[in-house]
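Inverse folding, one chain.
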């Protein structure tokens, strides 16, 4: 058992920012439905594993006062990469939390 890779994305600290069943994700400052994702696209990561690329509209992200805390994209809207299927994504999140514990570090 070893540590899983850390999430390098700027969005890693946006709790509850996606909903699998409705295929909607929201920006951290979502005030209305116009700030939800505009597309969910199946893809493969660098290791060939299934992911979903979630995209947000440039017109929503560019003027947002929270953009710097959400994304470093300059010319596009925010994007998120989620492991697929959902259970795999949740297992990865749980593994990342577990490896922060003292018990894991001791192991």
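Residues assigned per position:
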């Amino acid at each position: 058992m070893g540590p899983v890779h850390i999430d390098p994305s700027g969005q890693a600290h946006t709790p509850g920012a996606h909903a699998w069943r409705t295929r909607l994700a929201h920006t951290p400052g979502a005030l209305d439905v116009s700030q939800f994702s505009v597309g969910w696209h199946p893809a493969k990561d660098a290791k060939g594993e299934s992911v979903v690329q979630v995209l947000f509209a440039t017109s929503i992200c560019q003027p947002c006062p929270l953009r710097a805390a959400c994304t470093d994209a300059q010319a596009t809207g925010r994007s998120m990469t989620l492991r697929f299927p959902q259970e795999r994504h949740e297992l990865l999140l749980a593994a990342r939390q577990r490896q922060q514990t003292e018990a894991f570090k001791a192991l």
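Helices lie at 58-61, 67-70, 86-98, 102-106. The first strand starts at residue 18 and ends at 19.
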